[in-house]
Every structure is written in structure tokens, then in C-alpha cells.
Write a structure and sequence with these properties.
heterotrimer; A: about 525 residues; alpha+beta; Ubiquitin-like (UB roll); Rossmann fold; seven-stranded mixed beta sheet; five-stranded mixed beta sheet; 15 helices; about 25% helix; C: about 180 residues; Alpha-Beta Plaits; three-stranded antiparallel beta sheet; elongated; binds iron/sulfur cluster; binds FE2/S2 (inorganic) cluster
């Protein structure tokens, strides 16, 4: 393996890695713009210049590969390459590059949504000059829509071409290209081929400056006001890792979080903008009990009492309906309560899309089908006929939420029940048919684990505070279970439920939040 | 006693009482204005011309306030205490002659409510009673701070009453009588027959002790707001509090009158025989008395807004270690002088 | 280097205290005749010196457009955390594309440090000389964008308190109509 010396630090690294990667892996900072680990290297921004001994000029570290050299060419008899990232020459060169980048870049940080997470800001502050020597007028171009959701502010663009390469390599749709050359070059789309694919939102994420903007977030807030919480997207069974940005009780945006085993660096627009679904819904924030044709709100004690009264009436003819939208823990607890008949409603599906890069949007649009099947034994295949044959009179339903559109067949089945208890966060079609509605948490408020279709357990973290009187789903289920059977355990935290779950299911043995972590844990024993 | 004599005494009592109460009101106003001027402020200037009606407004305010009696206080004593303080303060003035005599209805009427032959003793006795008001107020309030205030006040009074009494003894030695009229007569004549010139040391001791007696700064340790949150009157409100307030000013007026009587010739106008001028002379004497008193009242206020409060140990040291020996020394001096004079 | 401080030994004269007391009395007596410094507040108004930090205002361009671009620098700088801004795309053409849809300052939390005006890159927020803007409820002391712009109109030409129409002084509207 080649031996490298960067700023006096000896590094041994595989041949074929770039100097930039070697430095980054060893905690040496080299600034860069056009490099992206998932994209082709173009070496166009020149920000990553370093000095390599024996080379006449500064080299772009993102495109300089490390390799073994013959022993007579080794520096000091042992190093294959000696790199300086901090000497005067490099420092001065960085200053120059930044000055060039800023020639036409407007100083409008105060209105720019990237401010606060902008690499141009950060690097200018760290490596750049305090002032510009450019006296001419800046080049000014109007903003343009590249697609229905993406706006480009040409003035801010630094031509790193990451977005262009993204559409070429990751989405494979090639909408973006660099129009014209030199001073006149700009990012453009053809009129008949706008940037409207399902991965378009990612270009706003990867743009290191504020040139590409998502209309969804533009002029909404400032990045330092937002709380960033790592979580998992719940809009298909892939389970892309995301960061949720929220302020007080409002989610403002989702961005992709790196997880090479799941989604790489990106996410799709279904998940990115999916959180808006939960904004304008009819939330249930208090336990509701049916009175004639309408509901009245009740306190928790009465609601739970009412629930078990209803269940006890037809104890043997009660079925639990689990949900692929809920966490493993909730499904597990429900499965424990209704051991006899357990089913689920028909799956919610969409179109399966796989991009050339391997990025996948699954046909199964529920996040936890795999987990649900793992955790609940004996889910009946055909719940509808089972209800008929077993003469089920009572249903306890974990509601799938806003995505579940109830068809007439199921409406009829549920309508015929003696009593229906629904655990839901909103007044969905299903909840409207219930006799008791227990208010749980909405998808980005939940905590627990879900298992994606490749068998990776991931940690859902609550991104929003608890609303009014709603309770975590697992806690509600536990209360119901305790009330039905006084001998069952009372859990004080989710970890205890997970432990219990691990005792029952070998695959889930020893799972803790700590073990799952930010990157998930595969139950196949190998990374999927 | 005949009816006329009785009426005359009644009128005198009423006049003196009214004058004292008026004096209290004037003092309340004066205190606030003078302190304001000394601090480059304006002071009350809203109620009436130049704010002169301010004390009335204050009085109304006091009347309108809720009269709180805390639950755990010793009620009878709590209610009695302000009266015990105020009544002696008003009574003291009875023996103080505030002018030469006038001839009316064929009688010679002395401008003095009661010509007691032990006037000085009477005053000393009454001022000692007033401290009971303070101690009882502090004690019955059932409040640590109030109790401390009351205790401080009693200790202070004992320490300074001694020195004050001894200072007065030297005057009595000179005058040879305990009657206040005699003391005034003793000082008549030229300027330098005033006791202030004959007994400067006694005057100094007396003046300082009087400040302590009236609980005025720099000796207001019994109310010391910063340490005792108001001291003995912490728990009082409304008219009861106003009575403490009035008593303080009534005491000041009496103290000023006493100082004038003992050391500044009382109503005496120097180098003038008031008796020979008839009614005019009497008026002149009253005026002179009031002017002298006014100066001392001003001094009270002036001192209050100039000096900071003593520490308690300093107060005790001053009283016992400085003033008492000095007063004793002064008596010996006076007695020695008188003996030498008598021996010729 | 240590400095040796000699303690002052009082002389006999000092220990008498009487001269010192006299001097004290003279000092207060002299003040008796000084000109007093009181300003009769509601009748006369104190005119604050330049740079006084009172009620905030939001500046406007001559054509009436608000200067603020809702960058939230002020709210980031604010140590009392009392500026709340909701930004939005500006309704005016050209130039700055962002403006505050809502701009609330909680005057009860504000400590009038002036950090907001120092942080502002657009010179949009300023503290004026207005100091008497008391009100009866907490809600009324949260001033909104309209209120802040109104303050600008009141203070833009000259010192607010030198205006003839002083009755306006008490009518600074800090309340939000919600
Ligand atoms: S003056 Fe200071 S405390 Fe007040 S709003 Fe401005 S920054 Fe905040
Ligand atoms: S007042 Fe200034 S600092 Fe505050 S948001 Fe507006 S432009 Fe930014
Ligand atoms: S990162 Fe190396 S040239 Fe842009």
C-alpha cells in the first residue's frame, strides 16, 4: 500500500484513492466544491488545490490519485507522495480562487436561503479575503425556473456542475446542462425537458451555494432557527435516511442524510415534500368516544375504560389490525393483545422506480411491511373472509393514516362491526367509523424502529414535540393491554418494549437504539 | 376655680393643641420640600399652590387606606401603642411657655397651659413614656424586625436620656428652679445671658440627645429601613401608621420648643423688656419663640438629610463613653463655679 | 510591585468630628439654593441625547418600500430573543426579493441594547428616542411591523419630543391587532 505524507502526517492508504479522500479520511481539511463522492470527478472548481512534491504546479487533490511508485522515486526513500495542504502557496492560491468565485457572486447573504449552510460563506470566512478588488459591475441575470419545484439564481452559481452530473449519473435524465462557455456559461434546461423528475429536489441539496433553490423552502426561514433531527423517511419501504428541519411545532424541510447502505446521499421528492400531507389534516388530539352520530372528547381514563369494555363484550370475536405504517414496537404490542386473529388492510402500493445509479423508489409505499410481518405471527392472508368465517364482531385497528383510502368493501365490513376502536392521529375515513378513537402520534412525531424491505432496522426519531393530549402509540397500546390483563408488564420506556420484542423474535434480539444508531442495523447479518 | 379661669385654660389647651397639629402638618410639608431642595429636586408641588396641601392629601390617603391588623398580633396592645406614643408627645407641650403674659379681662394670663413647678421633670417623665409606645408596638406586632426596632429604641432612649437629664441638671443648677418660667427669667437680659453661651457643652450634649430621643436621623435605628424594614411600625398601616408619623413630628416640635426654652431664652427677645410694651410686646415674644423654634425644626430636617445613620455599637459608645462623662464633667464644672461664686 | 498604603491617622481635631459635621451641613445647605434638575415629566419631556436607545422603528425607502429583508440577523443577535420574524417573498418588483411578512418585537423582553441595529445589514432597524410607550397589557407591548413602520413616520424628520404636537406622544400604537 502506498505511504503518503500529508502535512507531516504519515498515511497509508489503498492505491487508487484520491489525495482529497485520503486527507478527508484522516481529518485533514481540504476545501472543495465540485467533488461529490457519488459523482464523477471533473476537477473544475480548483478549490481543492494542494502542493505535491515533485510536481511543478499545484494539483487538484480531488483528481490526484495515490499509487505505488518505484522505490528509486520514493521521497525520503519511503513516501510515495508528499502533500502540503497548508503552506503559503496553497493558502494564497485558495485566496485567489475564492476571489475569482466571488467576482460575480452577489453579496446577498441576507436574503439567501443557503446562508448558514453555504460553503462559499464558510470557505470565504476560513480561507478567503475580507474584501474584493473587483471594481466592475457584477454580471446580473434574472432567476429562472428549471422545473416546477426548482429555481436557479444564476448570479450565485459557481459552476461546480454537480447538479449537471447529478442529472446525468444519478437520475439518468440529463435535463441540466451547461449552456455556452466561459464567462457566458450557465446552467440551463431545454424548454421541452424541464427538471421535473422525482429526484429533482436533490439538486437543491447538493448545490454548495444558494443557486439552486427549492420553491418549497424559499424565503421560509433561516437555517439557524431550525432544529435538525436525523430520522427516516416513511413514504416507501426503502426507508431513506433524512434530516428533518423543524421550528417549534412545524416541519420546514427534509433533506437526505448519507447512508451508503440505504439511500446513498439522496432521496426522492415523494418523501422530500411528503411531510406537507400531515399539515392540513384533521388531527385528533384528544381521545374521542362516539355518541350517536358524532364524537365527544373524553379523558384518557374513560377512553381506555370504554375500549376495554367494548373488547370484553366480544372477547373471542375480536380481531386486531396491525399496520405497516407503524413501528415494530406498536405492532408487537398489538400482536400481543390479539393473539388469535391478527390481520392487516390491503397494502398501499405505487410505481416501482429504479434509477441507473441504483437509487430505488419501492412499489410498497408503506415503510414497515417487512417489520410488521417479522414481528406479528400469524397475520391472516385474507382478513375479509376470516372476519366472515370467525364471526368477528370487534376490531382494534392501528390506523395507517392519511394515505389509507378505504374502499367500499372495507367500509361495509367495518360498518357491520359491533364496535371499532381506532388508534389514529387524524380523523381519517377509518377513524370516522370508529366507536373510540385513541389519539396517537403522526409519522414524524413517532419514536420507534422500523425495518425496511432489505431487512435493515432503522431508528425513527421524533422530530416534533408531542401535541396536546396525544400519546405515543406504544404507550396507548400498553395501557390497553394492562387494562385488559392486569398481569402484563408495564413499560416505562420504549427500550423495554424492544427488549421484550427481542426475547420473542430471534432476529430482533439485542436490538437497542444505541445499536441501531443513525445508520441502522441489518438483521440479515450483512449489510443489505 | 371660676368659670372664666376654666374657659381661659380650655382655650389655651385648644390653641396649643391646634397649633401643634398645624405644626405637624407644616413639618410634614417642610420635611419633603426641604429634603427635595437639598437634593436639587422640587418635591411635592402638585396639590395646592406650591404643593402646600400635600399633607392634607397624605392625610386623606392615610384615612382611605385599609387598616390592616395582622392575624397574629397582640390586638389590644397593637391598637393602643400608637396612642401611647402620640399622646405624651402632645402632652409635653402643656408646660412650655410660648410667650410672655398678656392682660385680658383684668387678669394676667400666662401663655402657657400649665405652670408646673417641676416642669423640667414633667417633660423628662413624659418623653420616657413615649418610648413605651415604640416598644409595645414592636412587641405586639409579633414580627422579628419590629421587635428589634422596639428594643433598639428602648436601649437608645435609656442611654441618651441619662446624658440629656444630666445636661439639663446644669441648667437647673444655674436657674435654681425646675419651673420653666424661672429658667426663662434666668436667661433674660443681654444676649449672653442665654444658656447657650453660659453652658455650651450642655447645649451640645442636649442637642445630640434630643435627636436620639426623637428617633430622628442619625439616630433612627429603631426604624432603619435597610435593616429592619421599617422597624417598629412595619406592621402598621392606615391611620395607625399616621399616628406614628404624627407623633414623630409632634415630638420634634416639642423638642425644638424645649431646646429654645432651656438654651435660647424661650420667648425672650434679647435687650428688650416685653412687659413694658403691652400687647405688642407679647406678640413680639410669641414671634421670637416661634422663630427660634422654626430654626431648630429646620435644623432637624437639615441634619436628617445630611448625615448617615449610626451603627448600633457606635451609638452606644457615643452615649455611654462620651456624652455621659462629658455631662457629668459639665455638672461638676457648673457646681464648682456656683460654689466659688457663692463663696465670693 | 506592592504598594504600601499608609492608613490615615485621624488627628485630635478630626476626632472631635464637629468640624466635619459642620462641613457636611454646609454642603447640603449650599444645595438648598442650587437650581433643581427635576423635569416635570408629563408636562415637560426629557429630550434624550443623540444615540439614545428607545423604541424601535423599521426604516423605509423614500418610495415607501420597507428596507428590511427579513434576514433575521437582528433576531440572531438579540440577546433577549425578542424579535420574531416571518419572512416571505417580497411583493415589490426588482431588487430585494425578500421581506418580512411579520415582524414582531416583544418590548417587554427587549433590553434596548441596540444589538439589532448594529447587526442589521440593511440599516433597516433602528432604535429611536421614544421612551414613553407604556401600555396596559402584555399583548399591547408586542409591537408589530405596522407599528414599527408607524414609529418611523413619527420619528423620521426630527426629534420626536421637540415636535409641537406632543399629545401624539401617548398615542404610539404598540398593539397588534390580531
Ligand atoms: S435592542 Fe437588543 S434586546 Fe432589544 S430587540 Fe434589539 S437586540 Fe434585542
Ligand atoms: S431588520 Fe435588518 S437585520 Fe433584522 S431582518 Fe430586517 S434586514 Fe435583517
Ligand atoms: S473539488 Fe477538486 S477541483 Fe473542485
Amino acid at each position: 500500500m502506498p505511504l503518503l505524507k500529508i502535512d507531516g502526517k504519515e498515511i497509508e492508504i489503498k492505491s487508487g484513492t484520491t489525495v482529497l479522500q485520503a486527507a478527508e479520511a484522516n481529518g485533514i481539511e481540504i476545501p472543495y466544491y465540485c467533488y461529490h463522492p457519488a459523482l464523477e470527478i471533473v476537477g473544475s472548481c480548483r478549490m481543492c488545490l494542494v502542493q505535491v512534491e515533485g510536481m511543478p504546479k499545484l494539483q487538484v487533490s480531488c483528481n490526484t490519485f495515490v499509487s505505488d511508485v518505484s522505490s528509486d522515486r520514493k521521497v525520503d526513500g519511503k513516501y510515495d507522495m508528499v502533500v502540503h495542504t497548508q503552506n503559503d502557496l496553497v493558502v494564497q492560491e485558495r485566496k485567489n480562487i475564492l476571489e475569482f468565485l466571488l467576482l460575480n457572486h452577489p453579496l446577498d447573504c441576507s436574503v439567501c436561503d443557503q446562508a448558514g449552510e453555504c460553503y462559499l460563506q464558510d470557505y470565504s470566512f476560513k480561507f478567503g479575503n475580507a474584501h474584493s478588488r473587483f471594481d466592475e459591475n457584477k454580471r446580473v441575470r434574472p432567476n429562472e425556473f428549471l422545473g416546477s419545484q426548482i429555481v436557479i439564481n444564476h448570479n450565485r452559481c459557481i459552476m461546480c456542475s454537480q447538479c449537471v452530473r447529478f442529472t446525468q449519473e444519478i437520475s439518468g435524465t440529463s435535463e441540466l446542462f451547461v449552456e455556452a462557455r466561459g464567462y457566458n456559461s450557465k446552467i440551463a434546461v431545454l424548454e421541452d425537458n424541464p427538471l421535473d423528475n422525482l429526484l429533482a429536489g436533490n439538486v437543491a441539496d447538493i448545490c454548495p451555494v444558494g443557486a439552486l433553490l427549492s420553491t418549497d423552502y424559499i424565503h421560509k426561514n433561516r437555517i439557524w432557527n431550525l432544529k435538525k433531527q436525523p430520522s427516516v423517511c416513511q413514504d416507501c419501504s426503502v426507508g431513506c435516511n433524512v434530516d428533518v428541519f423543524s421550528q417549534t411545532d412545524q416541519i420546514l424541510r427534509l433533506t437526505a442524510r448519507e447512508n451508503l447502505d440505504v439511500n446513498g446521499y439522496f432521496m426522492c421528492d415523494i418523501g422530500r415534500y411528503g411531510f406537507h400531507r400531515y399539515e392540513e389534516i384533521d388531527r385528533v388530539l384528544q381521545p374521542m368516544v362516539r355518541k350517536g352520530d358524532s364524537f365527544v372528547s373524553a379523558d384518557w381514563e374513560t377512553a381506555i375504560q370504554k375500549t376495554i369494555d367494548l373488547i370484553k363484550k366480544n372477547k373471542s370475536n375480536t380481531a386486531g389490525i396491525v399496520s405497516p405504517f407503524h413501528t415494530n414496537e406498536s405492532n408487537f404490542l398489538l400482536g400481543q393483545i390479539f393473539k388469535d386473529v391478527l390481520g392487516s388492510l390491503p397494502p398501499i402500493t405505487g410505481e416501482e422506480i429504479t434509477y441507473p445509479s441504483g437509487f430505488r423508489i419501492s412499489a410498497d409505499r408503506s415503510p414497515n411491511t417487512r417489520g410488521m410481518n417479522d414481528i406479528c405471527e400469524g397475520i391472516v392472508e385474507d382478513l375479509a373472509s376470516k372476519i366472515k368465517t370467525q364471526d368477528i364482531r370487534t376490531l382494534f385497528i392501528l390506523d395507517d393514516g392519511v394515505d389509507r383510502k378505504l374502499d367500499d368493501k372495507w367500509k361495509k365490513i367495518i360498518g357491520k362491526m359491533d364496535s371499532v376502536i381506532v388508534l389514529s392521529y387524524a380523523m381519517t375515513d377509518l377513524a370516522k367509523l370508529a366507536h373510540v378513537v385513541l389519539p396517537g402520534h403522526a409519522p414524524l412525531e413517532r419514536e420507534g424502529t422500523i425495518t425496511n424491505d432489505k431487512g435493515r432496522i432503522q431508528w425513527l426519531r421524533p422530530s416534533l414535540p408531542v401535541k396536546v393530549e396525544s400519546k405515543p402509540d406504544w404507550e396507548i397500546l400498553m395501557l390497553v393491554r394492562n387494562a385488559l390483563d392486569k398481569k402484563t408488564e408495564h413499560f416505562v420506556e420504549l427500550g423495554e418494549v424492544m427488549k421484550k420484542m427481542g426475547e420473542k423474535f430471534e432476529n430482533y434480539a439485542g436490538i437497542t437504539f444505541f445499536k441501531v444508531g443513525n445508520q441502522g442495523y441489518s438483521i440479515n447479518g450483512k449489510s443489505s | 376655680m371660676d368659670l372664666l379661669g376654666f374657659t381661659i385654660i380650655l382655650v389655651k389647651v385648644l390653641v396649643v393643641f391646634a397649633a401643634t397639629m398645624l405644626g405637624v402638618l407644616v413639618m410634614i410639608y417642610a420635611e419633603r420640600r426641604v429634603s427635595a431642595f437639598m437634593q436639587d429636586r422640587v418635591g411635592p408641588n402638585r396639590v395646592g399652590p406650591k404643593g402646600v396641601l400635600q399633607p392634607i392629601a397624605d392625610g386623606i390617603k392615610f384615612l382611605m387606606k385599609e387598616d390592616l391588623v395582622p392575624e397574629k398580633v397582640d390586638k389590644p396592645i397593637f391598637i393602643l401603642a400608637p396612642a401611647i406614643l402620640l399622646i405624651p408627645a402632645l402632652m409635653t407641650f402643656a408646660v412650655i411657655p410660648f410667650g410672655s403674659s398678656i392682660n385680658l379681662f383684668g387678669r394676667e394670663i400666662a401663655l402657657q397651659v400649665a405652670d408646673v413647678n417641676v416642669g423640667v421633670l414633667y417633660i423628662l417623665a413624659l418623653t420616657s413614656i413615649s418610648v413605651y409606645g415604640i416598644v409595645l408596638a414592636g412587641w405586639s406586632s409579633n414580627n422579628k424586625y419590629s421587635l428589634l426596632g422596639g428594643l433598639r429604641s428602648s436601649a437608645q432612649l435609656i442611654s441618651y436620656e441619662l446624658a440629656m437629664g444630666l445636661a439639663v441638671v446644669s441648667i437647673i443648677l444655674l436657674a435654681g428652679s425646675l419651673r420653666l418660667n424661672d429658667i426663662i427669667t434666668d436667661q433674660q437680659g443681654s444676649f449672653f445671658s442665654w444658656n447657650i453661651f453660659r453652658q455650651p457643652l450642655a447645649f451640645l450634649i442636649f442637642l445630640i440627645a434630643v435627636y436620639a430621643e426623637t428617633n430622628r436621623l442619625p439616630f433612627d435605628l429603631s426604624e432603619a429601613e435597610q435593616e429592619l424594614v421599617g422597624g417598629y411600625h412595619t406592621e402598621y398601616s392606615s391611620m395607625k401608621f399616621a399616628m406614628f408619623f404624627m407623633a414623630e413630628y409632634a415630638n420634634m416640635i416639642t423638642a425644638a420648643a424645649l431646646t429654645v426654652t432651656l438654651f435660647f431664652g424661650g420667648w425672650d427677645v434679647p435687650l428688650l423688656d416685653e412687659g413694658s410694651l403691652g400687647l405688642f410686646g407679647t406678640l413680639l415674644s410669641v414671634l421670637s419663640f416661634l422663630l427660634k423654634m422654626a430654626f431648630f425644626l429646620f435644623l432637624f430636617i437639615w441634619v436628617r438629610w445630611t448625615f448617615p445613620r449610626f451603627r448600633y455599637d457606635q451609638l452606644m459608645r457615643l452615649g455611654w463613653k462620651v456624652m455621659l462623662p462629658l455631662a457629668l464633667f459639665n455638672i461638676f464644672l457648673t457646681a464648682g463655679y456656683l460654689t466659688l461664686k457663692a463663696l465670693g | 510591585m506592592a504598594t504600601i498604603v499608609k492608613s490615615y491617622e485621624p488627628t485630635f481635631w478630626d476626632k472631635l468630628y464637629l468640624p466635619a459635621l459642620m462641613r457636611g451641613l454646609i454642603v447640603t445647605f449650599r444645595h438648598f439654593f442650587r437650581k433643581n434638575v427635576t423635569i416635570q415629566y408629563p408636562d415637560q419631556k426629557h429630550i434624550p441625547p443623540e444615540g439614545y436607545r428607545g423604541l424601535h422603528r423599521l426604516n423605509k425607502y423614500p418610495e415607501g418600500r420597507i428596507k428590511c429583508v427579513a434576514c433575521e440577523m437582528c433576531s440572531a443577535a438579540c440577546p433577549a430573543d425578542c424579535i420574531h420574524i416571518i419572512p416571505g417573498p417580497s411583493p415589490w418588483d426588482g431588487g430585494k426579493e425578500r421581506y418580512p411578512v411579520r415582524f414582531d418585537i416583544d418590548l417587554l423582553r427587549c433590553i434596548f441594547c441596540g444589538f439589532c441595529e448594529m447587526a442589521c445589514p440593511e440599516e433597516a432597524i433602528e432604535l429611536t428616542e421614544i421612551y414613553d410607550f407604556s401600555d396596559y397589557t402584555r399583548d399591547d407591548l408586542v409591537i408589530d411591523k405596522e407599528g414599527l413602520l408607524e414609529v418611523y413616520d413619527l420619528t423620521k424628520d426630527q426629534n420626536y419630543y421637540t415636535k409641537k404636537n406632543l399629545s401624539k406622544a401617548s398615542s404610539v400604537n404598540t398593539s397588534i391587532d390580531t
